[in-house]
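Q: Hi! First time doing this. I have a protein sequence and I read that you can turn it into a structure. Is that right? Here it is:
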Amino acid sequence: MKLIVVHDSKGKIVSLARVETEAKGRIQAAAGLRPGRGQSLLEVEVASELAGRSLGEIHEGYRLDAKAKKLVARPGKGSAKRPG
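A: Yes, that's right. Below is the predicted 3D structure, encoded as structure tokens:
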């Protein structure tokens, strides 16, 4: 799964959207994601263990490492086990 992530210079996620690939290989993404002043936009591949999480859980529990182009758990947030 891929996400488009709008983030600030410290890696804080401002907004994100799933990137969907159609059967014909065309990519569809949520329109309207626009970085503001001091923000950037990056497409990242999401680790398989995050694929089942909601965008809200990812937004709350992770930040973006832009150099590595991956999401990393925020201390005490993303690494927590999901209930259930």
